[in-house]
Amino acid sequence: MIRHIFKTSTWHPTELEWLRAANTLSQPERERICQFMYKRDAKQSMAGRLLMRSCFTQLSGEPPESFHLSRDESGKPFIVNPPASLASLSFNVSHAGDYAAFAASTSAKIGVDVMKIELRRNTTVQQFFGHMKKQFTDFEWQNIRSAPTERGKLANFYRHWCLKESYVKAIGTGLKFGLQRIQFDLGALEDGICTSTTVSVDEVVDLDWKFEEILVDNHFVAVAVGDGKFSDENSVSIELLGFNDLAVSEDTLGDKFYFVNFNEKKECP
Fold first, then answer.
1. pTM of this prediction?
2. Which of 105, 162, 208, 249 could covalently link to 220 via disulfide, CB atoms 3.0 to 4.6 Å apart?
């Protein structure tokens, strides 16, 4: 199984990097990234697409720009007419805060989510929780609120949310799946890693799903691994990639205005 993250907040792409990255993508993808108002969001979207293509190239040997991507009804990306080596590949990408995260497997359903532990502006923890009341079961809210500090409660919240997102992305329904139908019983985080969390769906524990949780720089990363086809790996790790680790086009996009458009944006609100 492949698990990769890319720290977008510390990536300040040069013109050459941005144009090589852009040349790796299809025209619709480039246009979508160009529409973002802030550099932060454009970088996250670009990094997610490059992480996907790097995996496809690693497993198939085909150049990263050769893959055509589309999305299903739930918004989950898939490869149009994949080569035989990628026919059984399940993959997912997420980005939030400082990171883009990617996970893939040829033997199991996969969903990934990353969330930064932070509070929205001009609100308190309790106000924030009030807006999200219907997203968790009473049991989960009890666990979320059990932390002795506000910071701990917020961390518990994002850990639960990250797990739910990873699961519904793996099953391919998105958030239209009733989130109160899903209940997580959290395992213990040891050195920022947990593999003992379990999920119940409609009050029945589903042992066909395994969850890998990793705490990275104040971000939770959750990988949902489904159908009981679990890896034999004894440990969980996630590899941090830099731009030079990614598979990108050797050629640059001919339209240099594409970098100008990006470079004139503010980093974030």
1. 0.92
2. 162
C-alpha separations of 106 from 1, 90, 177, 255, 261 in Å: 8, 6, 25, 37, 38
Domains of the chain (ranges; CATH) run 1-107+231-269 (3.90.470.20), 112-225 (3.90.470.20)
Structure tokens at 26: 């299809």
DSSP H or E segment with residue 109: strand 109-116
Structure-block tokens of residue 245? 């680790």
Q: Which ranges constitute the DSSP H helices of the chain?
A: 15-24, 27-34, 39-60, 125-131, 138-145, 150-171, 257-263
User: H/E element holding 4?
Assistant: strand 2-7
Nearest one of 208, 247, 243 to 229, comparing CA atoms: 208
Please write the tens of the pLDDT for every residue from 77-132. Answer: 889 999 999 999 999 999 999 999 999 999 899 999 999 999 877 788 988 888 88
